[in-house]
Design brief:
The chain is of the alpha/beta class. It has a single domain, classed as Vaccinia Virus protein VP39 (Rossmann fold, 3-Layer(aba) Sandwich). The protein is about 30% helix and about 25% strand. It contains eight helices and twelve strands. The strands form two sheets. Strands 6-7-5-4-8-9-11-10-12 form a nine-stranded mixed β-sheet. The chain has a three-stranded antiparallel β-sheet with strand order 1-2-3, with no helix packed on it. The longest helix is centred in the first third of the chain and has 16 residues. It is globular. The two termini are about 30 Å apart.
Length: about 230
């Protein structure tokens, strides 16, 4: 793993195994906030949430979700999975942005993640399961998650987490009126998701590449502009 500075000042990385970046080079922090956290919490406005973060990676999505939940007194349970164990170990010294490090005891969280235990603090809980994401999803209950962050490496690099079987599995575990967020705007991926029951919506933010929202029994305005969710943070 090689650390990469992104344009918003936050740090991401390049994965030499998948030959892919963990984030858009225009901003790791901004991408996580505007393509995952803000739209998901805006659409699913509930006092208690279950979230699936696919995959944990550098932890931006899970950690920012914990920050938001603590700031807004929302009870959340986050489930994530990560195959790359050396990556998880390297996160002890990862230089997270101040919005994360100021609100969370990151060392305690990463320690729990690496020791295969749950991180629990007042109304938030994070569990990171180490292993294969496809197998992990098969163990999950139906209609269990309110939000899924579909944030695996790109379809060309990790096709098993983007194919029709994957979206069938996501539909099974997503609760009624749940939402999936992703950075991908691939028309092929959108077609697969729509074919297997999801409503599909385009999402844009500034000069970033468009993202996509997949919803289960929720109809929202298409071409949704993620800028409107700025107030959530």
């Amino acid at each position: 793993m090689r650390l990469i500075y992104t344009a918003d000042g936050s740090i991401s990385a390049y994965n030499d195994v998948y030959n892919d970046y963990y984030h858009d080079q225009k901003g790791a922090l901004l991408e996580s906030i505007y393509k995952h956290i803000s739209p998901a919490f805006h659409i699913i406005d509930k006092p208690s949430l279950r979230i699936l973060d696919l995959c944990f990676g550098l932890g931006y999505n899970s950690l920012l979700s914990l920050v938001f939940a603590k700031k807004r007194n929302i009870k959340i349970e986050i489930y994530s999975v990560e195959l790359d164990l050396p990556l998880l170990e390297s996160l002890y010294d990862f230089p997270y942005p101040k919005i994360i490090s100021s609100y969370l005891n990151v060392h305690s969280i990463i320690d729990a993640v690496n020791n295969d235990t749950h991180f629990v603090d007042s109304n938030v809980k994070l569990s990171v399961f180490r292993g294969d994401a496809v197998k992990f999803i098969q163990t999950l209950d139906c209609n269990f998650f309110d939000i899924v962050y579909q944030d695996a490496f790109s379809p060309s690099k990790n096709h098993l987490l983007w194919d029709k079987n994957h979206f069938l599995s996501l539909y099974r575990i997503l609760s009624d009126r749940g939402v999936i967020t992703t950075y991908s705007s691939s028309q092929d991926i959108r077609n697969i998701a729509q074919r297997y029951g999801f409503n599909v919506f385009n999402m844009k933010f500034a000069n970033f590449k468009n993202g996509t929202l997949f919803t289960k029994n929720i109809d929202i305005v298409n071409d949704l502009d993620s800028v409107i969710f700025l107030r959530l943070f």
